[in-house]
Each structure stands twice: as C-alpha cells, then as structure tokens.
Design a protein that fits this description.
Number of strands of chain A: 5
Order of helices and strands of chain A: EHHEEHHEE
Mean pLDDT of chain B: 92
Distance between the termini of chain A: 15 Å
CATH topology of chain B: Transcription Regulator spoIIAA
CATH architecture of chain B: 2-Layer Sandwich
CATH superfamily of chain A: Histidine kinase-like ATPase, C-terminal domain
Strand order of the largest sheet of chain A: 1-2-3-5-4
Number of domains of chain B: 1
Helix content of chain B: 40-55%
Largest sheet of chain A: 5 strands, antiparallel
CATH architecture of chain A: 2-Layer Sandwich
Number of strands of chain B: 6
Number of domains of chain A: 1
Strand content of chain A: 25-35%
Low-confidence stretches of chain A: none
Radius of gyration of chain B: 13 Å
CATH class of chain A: Alpha Beta
CATH superfamily of chain B: STAS domain
Shape of chain B: globular
Largest interface: A-B, 23 and 19 residues
Strand content of chain B: 25-35%
Number of helices of chain B: 4
Oligomer: heterodimer
Shape of chain A: globular
Mean pLDDT of chain A: 91
Low-confidence stretches of chain B: none
C-alpha cells in the first residue's frame, strides 16, 4: 500500500503530517508505537527542510511517500531545497549541548536513532531521504 | 495541541505540560518560560511531564535552553514524573543525565530547599 502527501513550506503543515500518519495508520493497520516513531521522524525531517532548506525561496516542493509492504515501512521525503545530506551531519548529544542552534543536530540524531536504515540521494536538484522503519 | 498549567510554589514554578509539544506551537512554552524568568531572576522550574504525550526536538530544546538560562541565576530545572515517551526521547538524544529527574514531590522540595 502506498500513500503520499504534498506539503507547503510552512511549519503549520506539521498538523497535516499528523493527520496523514493517523489516516495511514488506520488504513494500513499499523501499531501505535510505529505511528509515534513515524510522526516524530517526519516532523523532524520536515522542520529541517522548512527552517533551513530554502533561504526565503517561494518555490518549495515537498512531498512525503509512505510505502507499507509486509510490515516493512518505507518513508521517502523529497524536497527541492538546497542539498542537505543528514548522513553527513555529526549528530550527538555533546554537540547539541555545545551549540543548540546547530542546523538539524538534534532532529537528525532522533531520525538516525529511530530508523532501521537511512539513505540519501540528490536527484534532479531534489533531496531524497529514504527511511526504513 | 498542548496545555500549560502553572502554579507558583514557595521555591519553584511548577509547570504541568500536557498533550503534544509540536514544533509549530512550542514557541508558546518558550514565551511563557521567558516571561517568568524576566519577571523573577532567582527561580527554579519544575516541569511536570506525566501527561506529555509527544515532544519534538524543538520542544526538547526549550527545556535545554531553560536549564542553560537559569544556570546563570543558580536556578534549577527539574523534570518531574516524565512520561514514557519523553524519557525515551531523552535516551535517544543521550540527554538522560543532563536533567535532574524526580518522581517524588517530597524529593523535589528537599532538593530545592538545599
């Protein structure tokens, strides 16, 4: 089963993510714990895109794809913001406490810890963050 | 999405935060904390988080910032009866030893009376 959502570059769209996850959870009969993780990962990824991805540009194109296949959940977050590979971010508690304004630090740490697998690709000027849960 | 219930106790401000602390709304908590600190420098905060169902990294940063801000006034931040989800978040972030965590109000009062 596959579901998608398109978002605007405004932080209030976090509410749409929550509704998207809730609906997908019902349709795909997913466990509440998995939905909690999915919600947190998507909020952190989306927040980084909105806060740091566009530098005032107004042509944001943000999409989330969710695939469920035999209990395996695959999330793909696609955006046309500036290139940002979270796998290259040094994310640990120490760096977060030293500089809590560091771009993406704490959010990336949460995404990494909650994911089984994380991949990043830059295709046609778009970031693709692929997360296995 | 979340509610703040504030009580001023002799040695501390008790803020019970319930619901979901999402990034889009967390600034309201930050504003409330800043307002309290600006009115009274010598202060301790006790955050009752037993009903906090969800907290984003932005929300977590607010507690980190409160602790840093109060340090200069020798104030303390205590996380009181954290929810399971909030404790897990602290563990994920590697911050479980950064905060004082208490589950008993008598211990809180004793700690802040020192």
């Amino acid at each position: 089963m596959r579901k998608s959502i398109v978002l605007n570059k405004r932080i209030e769209d976090i509410e749409k993510i929550e509704r998207f996850v809730e609906t997908a959870g019902k349709e795909m009969e997913l466990e509440p714990e998995l939905l909690y993780k999915m919600n947190l990962i998507l909020e952190e990824a989306f927040t980084n895109i909105v806060f740091y991805g566009f530098d005032g540009r107004n042509d944001a194109d943000i999409k989330i794809n969710l695939n469920s296949d035999n209990g395996r959940i695959l999330l793909e977050i696609i955006d046309n913001g500036k290139a940002f590979n979270p796998l290259e971010v040094q994310a640990d508690a120490h760096s977060v406490l030293e500089d809590d304004t560091k771009i993406g630090g704490l959010g990336v740490l949460i995404i990494k810890k909650l994911s089984k697998e994380l991949k990043y690709k830059r295709i046609d000027e778009k970031n693709h963050l692929i997360i296995t849960l | 999405m979340f509610e703040i219930d504030r009580k001023t106790v002799a040695k501390f401000e008790l803020l019970k935060i319930s619901g979901k602390l999402v990034t889009a709304e967390a600034y309201k908590l930050e504003d409330e904390i800043d307002k309290i600190i600006s009115k009274s420098a010598a202060i301790n905060f006790v955050f009752d988080l037993c009903k906090l169902e969800y907290c984003s990294s932005y929300g977590l940063r607010i507690f980190i910032k409160a602790k840093k801000d109060l340090k200069m006034f020798n104030g303390k931040v205590i996380i009181f009866t954290p929810s399971k989800n909030f404790m897990e978040l602290l563990e994920i972030a590697g911050l479980e030893d950064f905060f004082i965590i208490e589950n008993d109000i008598a211990s809180v009062v004793e700690l802040l009376s020192e």
